[in-house]
Amino acid sequence: MIDVASLGSIIDGAGALPHHELHGYIPEPAESHHLFGAAFLVVGVLLIVETLAGSVWHRNRLRTTLWPAAIMSLGAGMVAVTALEPDDRLIHFTIGLIMLAAGWLEYRHRMGEVPRRTADLLIVPALIAGALEIGVFHFHGSLNNFGTVHVLLGLTVGAMVLVRLYQSRLLTSPPRHAFMGVLVLALAFELMALSH
Amino acid sequence: MSNNTRALIIGLAGPALSALGTLWVLANVLIDSGRELTFRYVIFDPGHLIIAAGVIVSVVSIPVAFQVAAAAPEDLELDLFEPDPAEQPSEAPATIPAEWETAE
Q1: Does B84 touch chain A (CB under 8 A)?
Q2: Distance CA B104, CA B93 (A)
Q3: CA pair distance B16, B20, nearest whole angstrom
């Protein structure tokens, strides 16, 4: 006989798995931020490697799709966080969707299917929305470790908007390309610095 | 920047990252020596994650370093991914087709 009351404790009113029931199996908020930080660290270094390697990097199609695929995977991971993390669900879900959409357009651009300007029409507003969500709405009005790191994350994503636009003006410029990698590295270390 | 310098930087990126992670772990041990070493701590601790990231970067970038060292300088320029204009839908022809003219 199934105890209905025990089932009720497994699934909460919002239809999601409550955090405390899964404690020990899923990462804590700080731990998941560290995981995302590590993923951004790999992506950031590989963006700089891509700049240094030039067209040698694109001899392998898998390598060409690595950057958009990584962004899409991280976006999917963020959507998964929505199901597991009870706080700030809307923010995590929206950022996840933004990353999925931006990664998909970057993939289509890299495949030569859409021009850079068309890709930027979605990627730039997506980055602006991401910067506002992380830096403003995720800030929660407190300059503790959590608040400060999220303000820094928002500022870094905001800087990515400027670099993306600057990069689009001269697509063959290695320093501009590498600068985006440096910002992704900054994002990675900021995520690693989170300790709540 | 010469091919060899680029190849050296690319090849050392992963190991340098792992070295940074190792320093992070050592610094953490010195600052917080009383911490219990659990499996969960190892897989989510930033220092250990940086070491793992360095290993992943090494796996991808070391073969690239060899290719870069052997490449021609023009192969090290950045690629443009803009769509081929020949594949874009063409506008209406500016000239009148010859068969239309002969029909008159």
Answers
A1: yes
A2: 19
A3: 6
CB-based contact A120:A164 (threshold 8 Å): yes
Give the closest residue to A131 by CA, choosing from A105, A164, A107. A164
Under DSSP, is residue A23 helix (H, G, I), strand (E, B) or coil?
strand
Task: For A89-108, write each residue's pLDDT tens digit.
Answer: 887 888 888 888 888 988 99
Q: How far from chain centre, in Å, is Cα B101?
A: 56
Nearest-Cα distance to chain A for B12, in Å, is 10
Nearest-Å Rg of the Cα atoms of chain B is 27
Q: Which of B6, B7, B20, B26 is nearest to B55 (CA)?
A: B20
Q: What is the ipTM metric for this complex?
A: 0.77
Give pLDDT tens digits for A65-91. Answer: 888 898 888 888 888 878 777 777 887
In chain A, which among 115-144 make CB contacts under 8 A with chain B?
A: 115-116
Largest CA distance in chain A: 68
Q: Do A38 and B52 touch (CB under 8 A)?
A: yes
Q: Closest residue of B to A32, CA-based?
A: B44
* CA–CA dist B91, A33 (Å, integer): 50
Structural domains of chain A ordered from first start: 27-193 (1.25.40)
Q: Output the CA angle A90-A95-A99, nearest 5 degrees.
A: 150
DSSP B29-95: HHHSTT----HHHHHH-HHHHHHHHHHHHHHHHHHHHHHHHHS-GGGGSPPP-PPPGGGSPPPPPSS
pTM score, whole prediction: 0.77
